[in-house]
Amino acid sequence: MDTFSFSIKKRFGTGFQAGLAAGLVAGLIMLILSWTINGISLPEVVSAAFTALLPVSAFDYLHQIIGENAKYYLFAGIFLGQCLVFALCGGLYNLLPGSPGQAGAAPLRLGTARGVLLALVLWLLSGLVLLPLLGAGVFGVNLGNGVGSTMISLALVGLIFGLLFVVVRNWLVDRSLQVVGKDNLPGERARQERRSILQRGLVLLGVAVLGIAAWRFITGGDNGTSANLANQLVQQYRRKVAPPVPNYGTIQPAPHLSTEITPNDQFYVVSKNLASDPTVNVGNWHLDISGEVAQPLTLTYADLLAMPMKKQYESMMCISNEVGGRYMSNALWEGISLATLLEKAGGPAKAATKVVLHAADSYSDSIPLAKALEPTTLIALRMNGAVLPQGHGYPARLLVPGIYGMKHVKWITRIEVVKDNYQGYWQQRGWSDAAPIRLTSRIDTPLASTTLALNRPTYIAGVAFSGDKGIGEVDVSVDAGKTWQKATLKRPLSPLTWVLWEWPWIPQEKGNYTIVARAIDMEGNVQTPAIASPLPDGATGYHTITVVVV
Ligand SMILES: Nc1nc2c(c(=O)[nH]1)N[C@H]1C(S)=C(S)[C@@H](COP(=O)(O)O)O[C@H]1N2
Ligand SMILES: [Mo]
User: Fold this and answer.
1) Is 462 helix (H, G, I), strand (E, B) or coil?
2) N or C: which end of the chain has fewer CB within 10 A?
């Protein structure tokens, strides 16, 4: 026995620590490469595979408890998981022959060549095994990144990991040898104690996180669930009245009331991408029109810019928006009619039933052919007078009024006419395919839970939205729905936008007030009071707030 012999546990531990450190750096580099050279981001691929496997109810539950921040938590979780995998690779690698303590006395320190070898092994494993297993295909052929940038970015990340691993591991081994050399037993014991405290800390943290999740699961997370059963009955009940005559008038400025047009930098942003939305280079971008069309077609950005454009005010809402939520905005869009584009490609075949939009981030969704041919279905290139911002789908996105934001595919690369019942990214995860927007109204002002002054005139105001059915009436109640008053409506910019509404109020008694709003569309459909959570068809219920009058 020589003094340099390391136990299996120690060899694994050293490799694990070095792998963790190198993995952290490599993971960050992977992110930077995905932002800069469109490199692959493994956390994104893992998240796509994970959310596809998750039962819909579990996914909805995740969505509910962590709400808007769900994807950031998911990303953080997957990123940490990735660091652990890197660490395990390091630990296992360090058990291979040639590590300290192995009989046969290979050199204690690893050479650079070992790092390169490790990188090569990881590169092949991830490209040929991991990515295909995750459904992304060999070296991510099924992804929008392009095999080239996937191979290059994976190679760079692998090299950084491999080389850094060698450096950190050698450093750790050197340090251990110094300790052993000095025969510094008390020091060693202190170090072990520190490490076991760290280990215990990590275990405790893990247990705490799991515990909180379990507790929230058992207690139901939010009170919407208990109301659900009673609501199912109300749900059947669809009230319809005679088509209203809108009470158009002037809306007085009120604090917190939404502006009718949402500026681009305030327009809500939703995407499935955890950390990196695609950045499309229009120089080599093109839009393919393929599938069941007479003459498949490829158009450049310049081709599109040369075509006649239509201007259209349209509001959008995310299907995951809660009643009263902020994922709803309005803009003036400019784009080319999808029907015109399909016509240019020789028109859809007789058997065609749907049009699929494929995007640069491997997202896709489909709309019925009839919807695709409506004159208000556009491929939009501009938003509020500016070139489509990157976050909103530059260079081209779909606009399809009447259905949820999910179907407004951003960063489009291919329009495919199909004859099967294609299911898109969110449909594969349990969300509605037809996805018609459900009538909703939101109280913007007063803010919930605020205090108002007795006898002081104030405004109750907000927005109402129906997709493409217009808003005929908005009613306001300050007594939790016992009595209703008709609000004034601002004449909308188009039949496809939300409508601003307002009702002046002078509170004449002190106390708590429950304010409720409900809308009626131009056909006379009354907004349902039944509470439904966003999954699978979009949220319903009345936006309800309380204020105190003093
Ligand atoms: N390519 C792509 N398009 C997409 C998405 C996406 O993740 N990827 N998200 C959809 C969803 S769920 C919504 S609500 C809208 C949001 O569009 P916005 O960010 O411009 O408001 O984009 C849709 N289009
Ligand atoms: Mo959405």
Assistant:
1) strand
2) N
Sequence-separated (6 or more) residues with CB below 8 Å from residue 365: 356, 357, 406, 407, 409, 424, 425, 426, 427
DSSP for residue 403: B
Q: Within a 10 A sphere around the Cβ of 217, how many other Cβ atoms? A: 12
Both tokens of 31, joined, read: 């992110």
Q: Give tens-digit pLDDT for 260-282.
A: 999 999 999 999 998 889 999 99
Q: Is the CB of 318 under 6 A from ligand 1?
A: yes
* Residue 270 Cβ < 6 Å to ligand 1: yes
Strands 354-359 and 364-368: antiparallel
For ligand 1, atom 15, which residue shows the shortest CA distance?
A: 405
Q: Determine how many CB atoms are found less than 10 A away from the CB of residue 346.
A: 13
User: Which residue in the block uniquely carries the two structure tokens 């896709």?
Assistant: 364
Helix residue ranges, H only, 142-223: 147-182, 185-218
What H or E segment, with its residue span, contains residue 314?
strand 310-317
Nearest ligand, measured from the Cα of 383? 1
Q: Using CA atoms, how far apart are residues 391 and 420, in angstroms rounded to an integer?
A: 31
Percentage of the chain beyond pLDDT 90 is 65
> Over the Cα atoms of the chain, what is R_g?
29
Q: 3-class DSSP state for residue 222?
A: coil
Residues belonging to the chain = 550
Distance 547 CA to ligand 2 centre (A): 30
Strands 412-418 and 286-291: parallel
Closest residue CA from atom 23 of ligand 1 = 406
**Cα-to-centroid distance, 270 and ligand 1 (Å):** 5
Residue 90, classed as helix, strand or coil, is helix
Q: Are 102 and 95 in contact (CB under 8 A)?
A: no
Q: Judge if the upstream peptide bond of residue 375 is cis by omega within 30 degrees of 0.
A: no
Element (DSSP H or E) covering residue 28: helix 8-36
Dihedral sign (CA 537, 538, 543, 544): positive
Q: Is 473 in the pocket of ligand 1 (CB under 6 A)?
A: no
pLDDT per residue as tens digits for the range 135-182:
888 998 888 778 888 898 999 999 999 999 999 998 988 888 776 655
Axis crossing angle, helix 112-124 with helix 70-93, rounded to the nearest 10: 130
Phi, psi of 485 (to 5 degrees): -125, 145
Dihedral (CA of 100, 105, 106, 108) sign: positive
Q: What CA–CA distance (Å, rounded) separates 161 from 152? A: 14
CA atoms of 415 and 549, how far apart (whole Å): 55
Location of structure tokens 């490799």: 15
Task: Please tell me the least confidently modeled range out of 110-124, 167-181, 323-337.
Answer: 167-181
Q: Indicate the DSSP class of residue 250.
A: P
The tokens describing 223, both together, are 């009170």
Ligand 1 atom with the smallest distance to the CA of 360 is 1
Q: Is 361 touching ligand 1 by the criterion CB < 6 Å? A: yes
Residue 472, pLDDT above cutoff 80: yes
Question: Is the shortest distance between the CB of 405 and ligand 1 below 6 Å?
Answer: yes
Q: For residue 411, which atom of ligand 1 is closest to its CA? A: 1
